[in-house]
């Protein structure tokens, strides 16, 4: 059967749409299957949550020609302040120390989603099937077939390659029996916004507490996005607090560095887990983003990790097309898996290690972690390395992350 598409991307959220954007100038025929109407308020990827985009991610979007539509609503992170509540350790990072204009940028999901859709609107080689739901996926040596429910009818689509970008609970992964190693943190991230009483100065704060990390990210008009990692048993209580109670508890957790918090936004909670997928590729299939891995939101690495998946696989596929290779061949896809393995391992180990180290209050470990924070703060070479890792500028970078076209 002749392929309907060269690539079928299952999942039209931020990661799937970013890949379609990266490949829109190619001659590949691309289909994007998304279950939720893109303009609907229920679209989970394009909601009012915020992302901390690493500087390397900004470069990727810039190379893709999307950043100009994101930049007007992006708040630069010029400094990061890391502390351990009740202890002496502190690390202060500044973009100027690494010769960067910013360490990252805070962007609302809806802004990023709108920019991606605007860029894709004029792409002749990208077709959206939305709303459409995947019913079945089958892989063969020559092609992949995907049955979808679209416009009240079942239809079978054939592609040279299927890319699963359908999130942490990937239906593609489940349909094909691909195992995922999932470790529950028994925590949820409670996200909201507040307004600070003192200027935040474009500083992001990561404060480790006895119940989990608490992050405040700078927004416009002195607002801050809050990501409060709380124990699962505490979540119903925190969500049930009145606005005044929430502000009081947040103030107690964070302190008075930013003055008195006011104007809390709506609160929502998202369960947290570490997910590893030992088999991210098969012949005719590749997993990207949360379908391939999830990490704790500490240090804001999750989406940035997925976007580096996008940049890497877009480069691998573009090079394969130029070489006349089969984009769905396992040899081609293993190049992607091998390339991404180290970054995935390092990022998962880094974020998981932070959670484990800062959740143990045994005195020797408390002393060691606070000495470590001070060492990063006082040793310029260590600090610059730390900034490069957290800014997505370490390791083998894809062309898009180096500011180069595919």
Folded structure, characterized:
By secondary structure, this protein is α+β, with helices and mostly antiparallel strands. It has a domain at 5-74 and 106-182 and 273-358 and 396-402: FAD/NAD(P)-binding domain (3-Layer(bba) Sandwich). It is 33% helix and 29% strand. It contains eleven helices and 19 strands. It has helices at residues 14-22, 55-63, 67-70, 109-120, 171-175, 235-240, 243-254, 302-322, 330-358, 363-378, 380-390; strands at residues 5-10, 30-33, 50-54, 75-77, 79-84, 90-94, 104-108, 126-129, 132-139, 144-150, 153-164, 181-195, 203-209, 212-218, 223-231, 268-276, 281-282, 285-287, 293-294. Strands 1, 2, 8, 9, 10, 11, 17 and 18 form an eight-stranded mixed sheet that branches. A hairpin with a 4-residue loop joins strand 9 (132-139) and strand 10. Helix 8 runs antiparallel to helix 9. The longest helix is centred in the last third of the chain and has 29 residues, at 330-358. It is globular and about 65 Å long.
Could you tell me the radius of gyration in angstroms?
A: 21 Å
Q: What low-confidence regions span 5 or more consecutive residues with pLDDT below 50? A: none
CATH topology description of the domain at 5-74 and 106-182 and 273-358 and 396-402: FAD/NAD(P)-binding domain
Q: Structural class of the helix and strand makeup?
A: alpha+beta
Q: Any idea what the shape is?
A: globular
Number of strands: 19
- What fraction of residues sit in β-strands? 25-35%
Task: Give me some keywords for this one.
FAD/NAD(P)-binding domain, alpha+beta, 406 residues, eight-stranded mixed β-sheet, globular, single chain
């Amino acid at each position: 059967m002749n392929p309907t598409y060269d690539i079928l991307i299952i999942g039209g959220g931020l990661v799937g749409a970013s890949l379609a954007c990266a490949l829109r100038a190619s001659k590949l025929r691309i289909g994007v299957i998304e279950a939720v109407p893109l303009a609907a308020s229920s679209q989970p990827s394009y909601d009012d949550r915020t992302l901390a985009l690493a500087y390397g991610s900004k470069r990727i979007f810039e190379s893709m020609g999307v950043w100009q539509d994101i930049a007007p609503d992006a708040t630069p992170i010029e400094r990061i302040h890391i502390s351990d509540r009740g202890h002496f350790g502190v690390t202060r990072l500044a973009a100027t120390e690494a010769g960067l204009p910013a360490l990252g940028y805070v962007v609302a999901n809806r802004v990023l989603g709108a920019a991606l859709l605007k860029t894709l609107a004029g792409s002749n080689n990208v077709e959206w099937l939305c709303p459409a739901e995947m019913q079945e996926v089958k892989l063969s040596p020559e092609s992949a077939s995907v049955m979808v429910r679209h416009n009240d009818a079942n239809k079978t689509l054939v592609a040279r390659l299927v890319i699963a970008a359908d999130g942490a609970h990937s239906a593609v992964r489940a349909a094909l029996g691909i195992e995922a190693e999932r470790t529950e943190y028994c925590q949820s991230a409670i996200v909201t916004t507040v307004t600070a009483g003192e200027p935040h100065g474009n500083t992001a704060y990561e404060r480790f507490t006895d119940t989990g990390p608490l992050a405040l990210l700078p927004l416009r008009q002195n607002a801050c996005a809050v990501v409060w990692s709380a124990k699962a048993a505490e979540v119903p209580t925190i969500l049930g607090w009145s606005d005044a109670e929430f502000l009081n508890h947040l103030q107690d957790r964070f302190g008075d560095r930013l003055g008195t918090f006011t104007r809390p936004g709506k609160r929502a909670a998202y369960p947290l887990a570490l997910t590893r997928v030992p088999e991210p590729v098969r012949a005719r299939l590749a997993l990207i983003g949360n379908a391939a891995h999830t990490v704790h939101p500490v240090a804001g690495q999750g989406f940035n990790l997925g976007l580096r998946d996008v940049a890497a696989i877009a480069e691998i596929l573009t090079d394969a097309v130029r070489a006349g290779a089969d984009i769905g061949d396992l040899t081609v896809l293993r190049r992607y898996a091998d390339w991404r393995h180290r970054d995935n391992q390092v990022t998962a180990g880094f974020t998981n290690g932070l959670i484990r180290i800062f959740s143990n209050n045994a005195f020797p470990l408390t002393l060691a972690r606070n000495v470590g924070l001070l060492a990063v703060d006082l040793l310029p070479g260590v600090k610059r390395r730390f900034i490069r890792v957290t800014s997505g500028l370490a390791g083998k970078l894809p062309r898009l992350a180096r500011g180069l076209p595919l």
